[in-house]
Amino acid sequence: MKYVFQFGIVWDHLPRLLDGAWLTIRLSLGAFALGFVIAMLLAFLRTAGPRPLRAAIAAYVEVIRNTPFLVQLFIIYFSLPAIGIRFEAITAALLGMSLNFSGYATEIIRSGIEAVPRSQIEAGYSLGFTRLQIFRNIIVFPALRTVYPALASQFVLLMLGSSIVAAISAEELTAVTNTLQSTTFRAFEFYFVATAMYLLMAIGARLLLHAIYWTVFERARPVQQPWSR
Amino acid sequence: MSRDFDWPEFLFLLGALRWTVVLSLIAFVGGGIGGLLLAIARTSSHAILRGIAAAYIGVMQGTPVLMQLFLAYYGLAVLTGIRIDPWPAVTLAFTMYAAAFLGEIWRGAIQAIPRQQWEAAAALPLSPAAQLRHVILPQAFRIAIPPTVGFLVQLIKGTSIASIIGFVELTRAGQLIVNVTFQPMIVYPLIAGLYFVLCWPISLVALRLERRIDATLGIKQHP
Fold this sequence. Notes:
The structure holds 2 protein chains of 2 kinds. By secondary structure, chain A is an all-alpha fold. Chain A is 77% helix and 0% strand.
């Protein structure tokens, strides 16, 4: 082995790597926000909507969860233009990540909704609440608290999975790394540093998500609720 | 002059599907062996072993598989001094990835076994290794089956990114066919369909196993 590692050249290009990491973070947050809104809507309709719609949503979730993200991305970026729907790489990446995330999140949120005790929902009906009111006032908060850890790890998976959008050359961390290594011929060093950056982002995200859980769900709880046991 | 998408192209995709399956199985079996060792290390009474296993799992679960793949590919190239073919890199990367996830799943299963089982086995008296082998692992195994089967789906889907470093499995074969037929609207949805046909039955089996195990453990089902 005569290879000499040269990390200095990575240091010279650090600003570009940081730009890429920043785009990775923005993409992940954007896809999380968009995917979460879609998932809330789908999870609500999946549990309270008309039967055919429920079946359609179940099918959507299964298709998303049983096909690779990379292929979903190819369909959005390469197949859809064939029928006249065209996206920029970055838009396709955001859309693909959002839809992919929404599939997993729908299933996670649904499980949280179904864990809310039936009696509380019946109590809502007896007060004359509509389905939407029951969802908003009785189900959402405890359901989200139940599934928060699952959603949080799904967010980390979303962020790490975003590296795959480099395949359609959206200029996030992985794509920037690809470009830099191919011009400097220092592939191992660049990938090593980029991997470390992902690791830091994942650890940072976990810490932040933990802090958010504490502020939203723990501190905001005035008294022990029966469902918190 | 472009070709149409027809039977030969479809058969080419099916042929490539075989490599997706082969790669997934190698990684699953290799990762299973590594995962078992990791799970045992992670639950052992030896602090250094526990630390090493935890660090390995933390790093593998905290970094993108694609990056692991690039590092394996270029790392092997550095070690051997030549540009290598993708096979050893993808099998190495996916095996190490699978080991981390299976190790974490099985750690959870081992820790789900009540302490008293260890104590009872120790009172018999069985050696620590015999406690693990004859008392703990058989019980942990049952709990671990559904998430393990579920992970297989994640692994199969994950192998699609081997296409990015030029390994010809199903996704890469799809790209090659698109390059000659210019029919992405047919080919990519078809590829997705093939993955679905492969993965969905496994997902259903995992779900059914999970329900059965919950029932035997007395965990109440949601209505």
